[in-house]
Design brief:
256 residues; alpha+beta; four-stranded antiparallel beta sheet; elongated; transmembrane helix
Length: 256
């Protein structure tokens, strides 16, 4: 019985040794890659890297488009939830929420060159009437819900001020050199979109409105805003469309 048990153990040990030797022989004598195969693999990896890596790199056009679209929608959101209608005030409509694009020296890092920026604000009468400007020092400018910064690229205070959202200085941040409104939403050179308490887009400056619902101020056709990058040839650009009545906004085209 004892000899039988020892024989079985020796047999299993012998088989284990043979299996290990066979595995070592396969590793030693297995065919390897040729130089051509290695070069081919390297080329394929290089092509894949060239296709994938740009997706992870910063793109000013894409980043700016999504940011501005988000802030246009946020302006409409504020107009709906912060209903400015007040039956006790005859000129309540002058305080409607709006996003205004401007070119100011305070939107530049040197403070002497006028550059593009924008602000989201609700105009207020601080005693001298409504002026249609985003006055950051009087509580008119909206705050970014994520950072708590004032959404103003520099108008009454410099964009470098720690209280402001610097990304709203779109020329300094993203190299946007021009903002072009289509004729349907350009009113006397005013580059702004206003939303009423129902979220409908209006054109022009509310401080010039003579009544709450002037038909000529309600957006009648699609508004298209073009943002040009780097130079005035506008080859690199994106466009944001805003639909009448609903105020639905979206990126309609993009060119790098």
């Amino acid at each position: 019985m004892i000899f039988c048990t020892m024989y079985k153990r020796l047999k299993r040990l012998n088989k284990s040794i043979k299996d290990r030797q066979l595995f070592a022989d396969r590793l030693l004598f297995s065919p390897s890659f040729t130089l051509i195969e290695v070069i081919f693999v390297i080329i394929v990896i290089g092509i894949l890297a060239a296709m994938v890596l740009p997706r992870f790199q910063k793109n000013d056009v894409v980043d700016a488009a999504h940011q501005i679209l988000s802030h246009i929608r946020y302006t409409q959101h504020l107009a709906i939830i912060d209903d400015k209608f007040n039956p006790t005030k005859s000129d309540w409509y002058k305080e409607l929420w709006q996003i205004r694009f401007f070119k100011k020296k305070k939107a530049s890092s040197d403070g002497s060159t006028a550059k593009w920026g924008y602000a989201i604000f609700s105009d207020k009468n601080s005693g001298s009437g409504y002026d249609g400007n985003p006055n950051a020092t009087t509580g008119e400018v909206a705050k970014d819900p994520l950072t708590g910064k004032l959404i103003s690229g520099g108008f009454t205070i410099n964009y470098t001020d720690k209280r402001t959202l610097k990304q709203a200085a779109i020329e300094e941040t993203y190299k946007i050199v021009d903002v072009r409104f289509s004729p349907s939403c350009s009113y006397r050179g005013s580059k702004r979109i206003v939303f009423d308490n129902q979220g409908r887009p209006l054109i022009g400056d509310p401080q010039s409105y003579i009544s709450a619902y002037t038909q000529s101020k309600i957006l009648q056709q699609q508004c298209e805003i073009t943002f040009c990058f780097y130079d005035n040839s506008c080859k690199a650009n994106f466009k944001i469309a805003i639909e009448p009545e609903t105020g639905f906004s979206y990126i309609s085209s993009m060119s790098f």
